[in-house]
Amino acid sequence: MDKSTIIDTNKLDASKVFDVSSGVEPQTKTNLKDPAFRYSVKDAEVLIEREIPNHAYAVSE
Q: Which superkingdom does the taxonomy of this entry point to (predicted)?
């Protein structure tokens, strides 16, 4: 049975969440290089710095 983790990014410190789903490095505003560019766009990547607090996620089955 597959499980999924659902993260509520609204419950995280906004300065520690980086949306790279457009293929752009959020701090330098430059395009990511392949394969990072392809994966970030395909998977709608969001990077989270450090830890995710218990109250910010749920595991679903």
A: Bacteria
| Bond before 35 cis per omega within 30 degrees | yes
Q: What residue numbers bound the domain in which 35 lies?
A: 4-60
What per-residue confidence (pLDDT) applies to 8?
94
Kindly give the residue spans of alpha helices, DSSP state H, lying in 1-61.
36-42
pLDDT score, position 27: 86
Identify the CA nearest to 48 among candidates 21, 15, 6.
Answer: 15
Q: What residues form DSSP beta bridges with 31?
A: 24
What's the structural domain count of the chain?
1
pLDDT along the chain (61 residues), means of 10: 89 92 91 92 89 94 82
